[in-house]
Design a protein that fits this description.
By secondary structure, the protein is α+β, with helices and mostly antiparallel strands. It folds into 2 domains: 34 residues; 98 residues, Rieske [2Fe-2S] iron-sulphur domain (Rieske Iron-sulfur Protein, 3-layer Sandwich), CATH 2.102.10. It has 2 helices and 10 strands. It binds FE2/S2 (inorganic) cluster. The site of FE2/S2 (inorganic) cluster has 11 residues, from loops.
Length: 153
């Protein structure tokens, strides 16, 4: 009869090695599945900041008077507004309160942040609600059929 000691000193069987390897791989995969999201959260993404200082935000005729569009300017949203009196104005669309994306309210003729009901005038000034600062303004000029928005220098 085989004793407990004799059984432990016997060489491991190939089936046991497989089970151990699979269990080890499972444990490693579990650890990786916990660490990967944490590292992705902590480490910034490798997205190159746009060095472009201007972008075509829209085409002439695309925006009726008293309308606005949010467009991408580098890595951030920006807003282009065709004012009720026919001028183009553009600002960052990142609210100065907590960073929500603002939008144009044609019914109020103001720029509105839906997160906490912040309001900005058509000059970008914070006029009501929690936003502490004005929106950064961009320059707008029409080049042929393009409405080009540039960062102020
Ligand atoms: S994030 Fe815009 S008002 Fe709060």
């Amino acid at each position: 009869m085989e004793t407990e000691q004799e059984r432990d000193s016997s060489p491991p069987q190939p089936g046991r090695r497989w089970v151990s390897a699979l269990l080890g791989a499972g444990v490693l995969a579990s650890i990786a599945s916990f660490l990967y999201p944490a590292l992705r959260y902590v480490l910034p993404p490798r997205i190159a900041e746009s060095t472009s200082s201007s972008v075509v935000a829209a085409k002439v005729g695309q925006l009726k008077d008293n309308t606005g569009i949010v467009f991408r300017f580098g890595s951030e949203p920006a807003i282009l507004i065709h004012t009720p009196d026919g001028k183009y104005v553009a600002f960052t669309a990142v609210c100065t309160h907590l960073g929500c994306t603002v939008q144009y309210r044609s019914d109020l003729h103001e720029i509105w942040c839906p997160c906490h009901n912040g309001m900005y005038s058509l000059t970008g000034q914070n006029v009501s609600g929690p936003p502490p600062r004005p929106l950064a303004a961009y320059k707008v000029h029409v080049q042929g059929e393009d409405i080009v928005v540039s960062r102020s220098a």
